[in-house]
Design brief:
The chain contains four helices and three strands. By secondary structure, it is of the alpha+beta class. Strands 1-2-3 form a three-stranded antiparallel sheet. Strand 1 and strand 2 form a beta hairpin. Helix 2 packs across helix 4.
Length: 156
Amino acid sequence: MNGFWVRTASLLAVLGILFRYNAVLENRGREEEFIRLCAQVEAMETYIQNSQEAESQKEDEQEDGLYADGEWEGQAQGFGGEISLRVKVEKGEITDISIVSAEKEDEAYLSMAETMIPAMMKAQSADVDTVTGATFSSTGIRDAVAQALKKAVKDS
């Protein structure tokens, strides 16, 4: 009978240890989950802070304008030859884009390509789509505007 009580006590001790071990594992899982959630919160806070800083910087650029005031010239190859144009900037914004010369350019292609000028003024950038059917001429205009704007960018 004495062996029965020893075995029973041993079994109860093993069960107690297993329950306690299970509780420790559950706590570790909770700690790991807590750490993971803290890392996510920190990442989200960093993202929000960076977004706010970027938005603030964007607002500052919009207030001051991205470009230096003046008239800036650019040249690029079109369909039939070189296209020269002038970009006018006032209060940091593009106010006019005019073609100075495009002597060897085909008039039909050039007039189709000129339709992208209002889009560039609206975007305040040369980064607009070219005109289908006048790809070379519109690429020439876009590249010439990009060259002029590169000269106009503040802090350059």
